[in-house]
Amino acid sequence: MKGTWMTPAVLSWLQQATGSLMRQAQGPAAG
C-alpha cells in the first residue's frame, strides 16, 4: 500500500494544499 497513494488525484490535491499553504505563509509577510 506504499505506491497506491501516488495517484493523479492525490498529487493534484497535494499541489493545491501546498499552494494554499504557501499563499497563507506569504500573505502576512508580503503585506
Task: Name the descriptors.
31 residues
Main β-sheet: number of strands, strand sense, barrel status?
A: none
Radius of gyration: 13 Å
> What is the element string, with H for helices and E for strands?
H
Gross morphology: rod-shaped
Low-pLDDT parts are: none
Counting copies of identical and different chains, the oligomeric state is single chain
Helix content: over 70%
Present the secondary structure layout.
Blueprint lengths: L7 H23 L1
What can you see in these coordinates?
This protein has 31 residues and is mainly α. It contains 1 helix and no strands. The protein has one helix at residues 8-30. The longest helix has 23 residues, at 8-30.
What is this structure, in a nutshell?
This protein has 31 residues and is mostly helical. The chain has one helix spanning 8-30.
